[in-house]
Amino acid sequence: MDSSYKILLVDDELMLLELMKKYLTDQGYSITTCSNGSEALRIINKADFSVVISDLRMGEVNGFTVLRHYKEHSPHGIGILYTGTGRPDAASHPNVDVFLAKPFELFQLRDLLSQLLEE
Questions:
Q1: Between vectors from CA 63 to CA 60 and to CA 67, what angle results, nearest 5°?
Q2: Is 58 left (phi over 0), alpha (psi -120 to 50) or beta?
Q3: Strand (E) or helix (H) holding 18
Q4: CB 29 within 8 A of CB 80
Q5: Structure pTM?
Q6: How many Å apart are CA 8 and CA 4, to the nearest integer?
Q7: pLDDT per residue over 87-104, tens digit each?
Q8: Which domain, by its residues, includes 32?
């Protein structure tokens, strides 16, 4: 995989965040992580990302807000949202390109990224 693809991972569940970071780094991606939505907003202002992958439910700033801010800065970037809460409206949100229901397997995320970044 081309390491020029920069991905921002956003989740307040630190164990999952580190697991995804290690797996995707091993796949050749350049990974930046944030443990909350507020931090993600600041990082999006400072750096460009090919993809932002965010959990929906996090403290004060949720995944919808993170992806909206990302799309304002990178309209052609890919926004992936995931949640375990079963929000049917999440998949149709205008800033969500792909919705994943938790739990999902890391290989599914790998295959999805491969497909999206090759288009």
A1: 125
A2: beta
A3: helix 14-26
A4: no
A5: 0.93
A6: 13
A7: 667 667 889 999 998 889
A8: 6-118
